User: Which sequence fits this backbone?
């Protein structure tokens, strides 16, 4: 337990973002949790954080210290601490559509320190593990972990257990996300819906203004001029000479 921010930094080596609510240190089988903010530990999110970090320690112990890909490690911990929040599926759909979802293997290199980027990485990892469990169940996951520990190779155990490479699994997962969390779900999210509606109204206003300008131009083109062509000085003089005598 770290009772001060300084103690938390000392125990974690100062390499942990300040927004992190807990850290697992698998090689020491140690869990570091800040206690200077009581709500962090005692609230619902605090309990979820504890389950998340304990899952990291449990997986590491089960694997005998084998190094796990970051996306799998974090996804497993997310699943163990409550699972994937399906209401956030629209975010993945948007990120994939814009090409902004990071590749799974890139998460192995370095976990994002920026909170918003880290949230995306957690979301991606949790969704991938949820998709894996939907196809194989918890029994399939347990068999995979056993084979992984026995073969001492994540990729080999993954291919033998699930019948695909991790790269092919990633492609299948992306297609699953696009199919399951389509544009209707994205638009049903309030923030996105109102943004879309505002853009639609803005577009309609611009179209209407353009039509009004065109209609006004046509009306002006059909109006009589203030001084008709026959109201000229020459015409006035000719009229006085050829007019009816009094």
Assistant:
């Amino acid at each position: 337990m770290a009772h001060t921010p300084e103690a938390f930094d000392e125990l974690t080596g100062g390499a942990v973002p300040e927004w992190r609510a807990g850290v697992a240190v698998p090689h020491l089988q140690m869990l570091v949790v800040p206690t200077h903010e009581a709500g962090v530990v005692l609230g619902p999110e605090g309990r979820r954080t504890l389950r998340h970090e304990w899952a990291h320690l449990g997986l590491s112990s089960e694997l005998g210290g084998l190094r796990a890909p970051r996306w799998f490690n974090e996804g497993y911990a997310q699943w163990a601490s409550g699972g994937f929040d399906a209401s956030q599926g629209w975010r993945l759909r948007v990120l994939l559509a814009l090409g902004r979802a990071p590749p799974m293997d890139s998460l192995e290199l370095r976990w994002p320190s920026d909170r918003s980027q880290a949230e995306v990485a957690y979301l991606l990892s949790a969704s991938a593990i949820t998709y894996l469990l939907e196809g194989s169940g918890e029994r399939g996951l347990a068999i995979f972990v056993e084979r992984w520990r026995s073969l001492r190779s994540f990729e080999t155990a993954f291919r033998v257990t699930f019948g695909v490479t991790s790269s092919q699994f990633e492609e299948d997962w992306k297609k699953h996300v696009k199919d399951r969390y389509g544009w209707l779900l994205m638009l049903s999210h309030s923030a996105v819906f109102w943004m879309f509606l505002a853009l639609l109204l803005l577009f309609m206003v611009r179209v209407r203004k353009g039509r009004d300008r065109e209609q006004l131009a046509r009306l002006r083109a059909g109006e009589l001029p203030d001084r008709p062509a026959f109201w000229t000085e020459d015409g006035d003089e000719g009229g006085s000479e050829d007019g009816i005598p009094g």
